[in-house]
Amino acid sequence: MSRSRNYTGPWPRTPGRLLGTGLVRLYQLTLSGFIGNTCRHMPTCSEYAYEAIARHGLWSGGWMGLFRVMRCGPGGTHGIDNVPDRLAPDLRWWTPWRFWRLSARHSHG
Fold it and tell me: Going residue by residue through the chain (109 aa), what tens digit of pLDDT does each one get?
């Protein structure tokens, strides 16, 4: 049994994914402690970004993580907002703005 707070399921260890998850982990180990434990979502924004990058790659997962952080501010969404297992066919690498809609589909706050 793993005791990690991040996604522990299987994911391809490609260079982009390793870089992205490494940057998220670096944030968790350094700056996260200064910002405080005030995330309005479950899982936290950094855990969401880590899993999104691990599952869907640096480009798609990075956009998902960025938009999740943007939704976390005052007046934003809250509640359970899990990373989708699969991405919809209209979520392509050349249409990153469409990743913003994922919150409306998966937030149960």
Answer: 556 789 999 999 999 999 999 999 999 999 988 877 777 888 999 999 999 999 999 999 999 999 998 888 777 788 888 999 999 888 888 889 888 887 655 444 4
Whole-prediction pTM value?
0.87
User: In the block, which residue shows the tokens 């690498």?
Assistant: 93
Written as six digits, the tokens of 78 are 């809250």
Q: Please work out, in degrees rounded to the nearest 5, the angle formed at the alpha carbon of residue 32 by the alpha carbons of 40 and 77.
A: 15
Cα–Cα distance for residue pair 58/49, rounded to 1 Å? 10
Reported in sequence order, the residue ranges of the chain that DSSP labels E, i.e. its strands, are: 41-42, 79-80
Nearest-5° Cα angle at 59, 40 to 10: 75
- Contact between 47 and 11 under an 8 Å Cβ cutoff? The reply is no
Structure tokens at 91: 């979520």
